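Subject: Protein record for review, amino acid sequence with backbone structure tokens
Concerning: The relation between a protein's sequence and the shape of its backbone.
How to read it: Take the token row as a discrete description of the fold.
Enclosed: The protein record, placed directly beneath this head.
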Amino acid sequence: MHFPEFEVIPAVDVKDGETVQLVGGDPDTGTAYGDPVEVAERWLAAGAETLHLVDLDGAFAGERVNDTALGRIVDAVGDEVSLQVGGGIRTVADAVDLLDAGVDRVILGTAAVETPEIVGEIDERRPETVTVSLDARDDEVVVSGWTEGTGLDPAAAAARYEERGAGAILFTDVDVEGQLAGVNTDAVRAVAEAVDIPVVASGGVATVDDVVALRDAGAAAVVVGTALYEEQFTLAAAREALTDSA
């Protein structure tokens, strides 16, 4: 799994069938931004090459909940943009179902922590399609919708999952997620230096300078939610800043 150039990936997080952005992973927070298909089509028109789709209800429930909404996105834009999907994927069958339905990459969080062998099992059936999501709070990997600590160090965990067959790591700093408060480049750098596979950063991006900083810290791509939805900057502006600072 490779990103030929550093990518800015819009997040399309789905809760109760709507696009939302939470603050700090708290399900009781958040702002709604409309129909997920319309949102996905808007990001495609703005030049997105990859979309990051999350079934938030599924992440908290421990099973897939928003398959209908996600399926509509796949049908609408799946032929024109890469799709990575997470939230509630707990089994090999879940992952294969989504990949067979047109998703390009599946994101495993809780399942990868609780049953690490699932990463290799999916990779054997669909090579380089597994992204392991490591969500960190206070430099500790957390699971179950960011509610439970694991005692795992993110960089050490990333290296372990690379050995098991992960094609990429999605590293989210929950402490700054959804708050437009800036990024934790030290944490991203530590994870990126621990592995040879791509690291996709997420959490806290507020400006194009944050985007550039994450690239310079070693990330291969960044997922951006709130900053894009609240028009702190555009995808075009981010691409221009990346080019100018290359």
About this structure: Residues 7-244 form a domain with the TIM Barrel fold (CATH 3.20.20.70). The chain has one domain: 7-244.
